[in-house]
Please model this.
Amino acid sequence: MGARSITNGTVRCARLGFVLTLLLLVPILIFASTPDVSAVNVKLAWDPSPEPLVTGYRLYYGTSSGNYTNVVDAGNRTDSTVTGLEAGTTYYFAATAYTGAGDESTFSNVTSYTTPGSAPSRSESSEGGGCFIATAAFGSGLAPEVVTLREFRDRYLLTNGPGRAFVDWYYRVSPNAAAFIAEHESLRTAVRWGLTPVVYGVKYPVAALALAILFPAAIVIRKKCLSV
Model:
């Protein structure tokens, strides 16, 4: 009777653990499959340089022609996909070629592209303000993660007094911290790992709440099963 009781309890724990595992997988699948509707990707290509010493190419882009705020090293490829562009915004692109000795050519002809959709609205107080630490960690102010955090700031923090006070404090202390992080790759990696769950929590609050509730429950069930 005792052996049967232990067996039945183990089976029940196994079944419950299986159900909890499935429930935990649902938010993870949502994270992996839900498209990012706020960001636009574009693929660009250019003719290879005839110079034999050229070993790679860089693609520069920004929202003002000749004033490029972002760069992508394409290596020896003659195409590159730029991700995280804001909808309804005109971007300007120019490429350069470089050699193994570090020499770099002048900019190519400029190509412009206006992304589809409507540009995101921002309050006046947020215009020009950046998520400095996130930008330093992810390498670009147009990275999808940075765009998500910036939209959260505009929609939920800048619309109330406590949120605005937090943003003001952040803008006072974060530039120096961001500059220090940008200089150390290990810190950039650590900050990216730390910000990733925050970004997903902002983008998918229901799924994040489900994980927050179900994960501790799964641990409790596992401990009970191990003690049976």
Remarks:
- The mean pLDDT is 73.
- The first helix runs from residue 2 to 33.
